[in-house]
Amino acid sequence: MVNDKIRKRVEELRELIHYHDHKYYVENNPEISDYEYDQLMRELKELEEKYPSLRTPNSPTQRVGGEPIEGFPTVEHHIPMLSLDNTYSEDEIREFEARLHRELPDEEFEYVVELKIDGVSISLIYEDGEFIRGSTRGDGRRGDEVTANLKTVRTIPLKLRKKVPGRIEVRGEVYMSVSGFRKLNRERERRGESLFANPRNAAAGSLKLLDPKITSQRPLDSFIYNLTESTSIATPPTHFESLELLKEWGFKVNPYIKLCRSIQEVIDYCSLWAKRREELDYEVDGMVIKVNSIEQQRRLGSTSKSPRWAIAYKFPAKQATTKIKDIIVQVGRTGALTPVAILEPTPLAGSTISRATLHNEDEIRRKDIRIGDTVILEKGGDVIPQVVKVVESKRTGKEKKFSMPKRCPVCGAEVVRLEDEAVARCIGSSCPAQLKERIAHYARRTAMDIEGLGDKLINQLVDKKIVQDIADLYKLDLATLSSLERMGEKSAQNLLSQIERSKSQPLNRLIFALGIRYVGARGARILSEHFSSLDELSRATQEELEAIPEIGPRTANSIVLFFKEKKNKELIEKLRRYGVQMGRKEERRREAPLAGKRFVFTGSLEHYSRQEARELVESLGARVVSSVSKKVDYVVVGKNPGSKYEKAKSLGVRTLSEEEFQELVRSVVKSEG
Ligand SMILES: [Zn+2]
Question: Which among 305, 343, 460, 673 is most buried, taking Cβ atoms within 10 Å?
Fold first, then answer.
C-alpha cells in the first residue's frame, strides 16, 4: 500500500528535480552538485518502481525517454503556425515599417527584435500547468505529434513553475548546439554512420526518432518565443512582457531580445548580430522583428501565409556552389587516410575555400561524390566547410568515381580498414607522412614545446632521412642542422637548445606528446597524477586504468596497446638513453595547479590558437567550458569578445585579459617547479 508519507515524498522529489533542472539547464546556474542531483533522481526512480501507481507521465524520470512508439500522429494546429516573410536588406526592413504606417496611419510602433534560431519550430500545449502535448510545425496547419521526444528536452518544463490554470499554447524552436552537433557527428563518424549536414538537420532527425531513449541522448535544447494562446489567464498587452511571463513560468527564452523604439534601432541591432552570430554556440540564420503591442498585432492581422506584424531578416547564406577538381588522400599521425576534395576556390561566409574534408570512403559513397562534380558547400556549425550534396543536374557524364587507394600514397605500405572502423589506415610503421605528423605533435607548444621546429623543417628532416623516429631529434647536431635549407647557424643553435630543454618537460607533457590515441592534454594530466613515471604507466593494466576517473575503457585499451607495441617500447628506451625525463623528480604526488577550475574563452587571442589555449589549461588540470555561469572561475577575454564577456561581467565572474592569462599560466607553471 502506498501511504501518504511516500506519496508526499514522491511529490517533493519531483518538485525538487524540476527546480534543479530549471536552475541547471535554463538558468545555467546549478545550486547542487551532479552527485546530489543523481541521488534525488535515483530515490524517485526507486519509489516509482516500487509503487507503479505513483507514476505520472510528467515525472522527471520520463526525461530519459519512454517506450518506443509506432509513429507520429498528425495533430491540427488550433491556430495555424504561419511562416514569416523574409527580408534581406536594410531597405526591405524600412519598407516593412512603411507598410505598417500605411496600415495604421498616425500610430507609433515599438518593435521586439529576436535572434532567429535555426532549428525546428514546435508548439507546446499545457493544461493546468502540466505539459500534455507537443508537435512540429509541419505544413503550418497540421504537424506531427512528438510529445514523447519533446519530454526528453531538458529545458522544456514538464510542469510550469507558476500556477497557470486552463490551457496555454506556446511556440518556439528546438535546436542543437554547435558543440553538441560536432560531438554527435564525431561519434557517428567513428561508428561509420552517416553525418548530419548541419545542427538543424541533426535536431530535426532527432525529433523524428521512434525511440525516445535515443532522442534523450541527443543534445537538444529549446528557446520559446511566443505565448500563442491562454484560455484563463489574461495575457500581457505587449509581446515583450509576455516573454517575461514565459520566463517566470520556467521556459527558456533567448537572452538577446531587444525592445526597439525606432526602425533605425532595429536595423542597428540586426547588423550587430550579423557580425556577432559566430560567437554563439547555436546557429542563427537571421533576426525576427515583431510589433510589440499585441493590440496592434491584432489589428494588423495576417495574410493567408504570414502575419503582417512580423518579418524575418535573413543573414547572407553560409552556402556556396563550387566544383570538385580532384580528391586527394591525406595521411595523419595514426596513419588514418582522409579523402580531401580540392575545390575551385570559392568565397563562403567570409573566407575563400579551396578544400574540404570528405571524412571517409563511406561518406563519399553515401553522397555519391565524384571528381568533377558540382557540389553545395556549407559552413554548418563548423569552422570546416562540408560538402552537403552533389548538384546532379550539373553532371556531364565525365565525372570520375573515387576509390580509396590500396596502398599508402606516401610510403606505399598496405592500407587496411578494420571491421568496426570507418577509416582506412596505412599500416606502414615507417610511413613518412605519419612520422611528420607525429613529430609536429611531439613538438607542439602544449606538448614538448620545441620552438622553431616547424612543418618545413620537419619535411626536410624526414625526407632526407635524418630523422626516422621522434628520438632522432635528440641526436641532431649543429653541422647537420646548418646544412639544411634556410637554416642559419644562429637558428640552428636556438633549435638545439629548445630540443635540449624539452628533455625536462613534466611527465604529463611527455604522455601527451607520445600521441597515444584518445589521450588528450587533459587525459595526460590525469594519468600523470596517478602514475609517478612513464614506466609505471606502461605497466598499468586495463582494469587499473579504467578505475581512474575520466579514463574510459576505450582510452584504457588504447594505452595498453600502445605500450605493448614493440616499436613504441624501443622508442621509449631510445628517448630514455638520450636523457628525456620520464618521471616526477619528487615522490610527493601533487594536485594539478588549476585542478577543478573552469575556463571560458571569448574573442581571439594573439599568442594562442583556441586549441592551444584549451590544451594549455587542460594540461594544468583545468576544464574549458562553452558557456558562462557562476560556476566558471575565469573568462579569458581576447580581441573582439562576444556576449560571453558581458555575461561574465553581469554574473561577477572574474575576467582575464590575454596578458593576465599568460601571467596566471606562468605563475602556476613556476609553482609546479
Ligand atoms: Zn604510409
Answer: 343
